[in-house]
Amino acid sequence: MERTAPPHETATPTPTGAPVQGASGLLDGVPRQRGPRETVGAVREPTPASATRRRSPRPWRLLPTPTGTPFTFGYAVVLCLTSLIAAYANPALVHALLQGSSTDVTHLVRTPELVLIGSALWVAGGVTSPFAIAFVLVLTALERRIGAVRTAGVFLLGHVLATLATEVPVGVAVLAGHLPDSSLHRLDYGVSFGVAAGIGALAGLLPLWLRLPLLAGFGWMLLQDLLAFTDPMTNWGHPIALGIGIATWPVVRRWYAARLGPAGG
Predict the structure, then answer these.
(1) Is residue 245 within 8 Å of 195, Cβ to Cβ?
(2) Residue 23 carries which DSSP code?
């Protein structure tokens, strides 16, 4: 039986001249088809960025920022200020400030909290020293991975434990008569123990091809310091702090995975 068009429908001529029933131009008896505009809108050409998902290099992320890495940024500002004081203030005042912030045995017995915090506000050698540069790069990278509070915890853990591990034996040796009393008043300050712990912790979050060179290079530097034997207590404190940072790998890896979330895990 031949179907006739209802009165409200009109024939639409095709390019060949044959009429097609229905003003919409769709085939009769077939589910609704997409028109030309719908077809074009449905096809989306993937952009190169979304197709490859390659991130362009962002070297500025190596440096701390107030919003991205507030702990490292704020701490770096404080270290810059104290370095300016050490460089330009009266030498007698600087010596008094450093002596009052020293984590020697005498100060640790009298005011442990004060000197443990105060000693970490200075950089031995100024802002151009290797440990000052490592402080900025290492703590920035670590904070971007585990957050500000946890980075501060790793830093303080290495700073405090390595300090106690090097100063307590000095006190015991003085009591036993193996070291003179002057050893109780040695000048000891700086951020190097905290930085060493940060290097150890960060290494556990890096791929193997970055982890091994980092640990090998820093370990070789510490070995040279030990062989030079210029400051035995401080020189031994750096490997201890590095070991403390390495010991945090299980914890920092869990923190990093939790920070990434389900999508990054």
Answers:
(1) no
(2) T
Tokens 């442990």 found at? 112
Amino acid letter for position 213: P
**C-alpha to C-alpha distance for 70 and 76, rounded to whole angstroms:** 10
- CB 101, CB 93: distance < 8 Å: no
Q: Other C-beta atoms within 10 Å of 253: how many?
A: 15
Cβ-proximal residues to 139 (8 Å cutoff; 6+ apart), any chain = 64, 69, 71, 72, 75, 151, 155, 195, 198
Q: Above 90 in pLDDT, residue 242?
A: yes
Left if phi > 0, otherwise alpha if psi is -120 to 50, otherwise beta: which for 53? left
Tokens found for residue 188: 């000891």
For 17-34, what is the mean pLDDT? 50
Q: pTM of the prediction?
A: 0.77
Cα 129 from Cα 243, distance rounded (Å):
22
Beta bridge partners of 19: 13
pLDDT digits (tens, 9 = 90+) for 160-212: 999 999 999 989 988 988 888 888 888 889 999 999 999 999 999 999 999 99
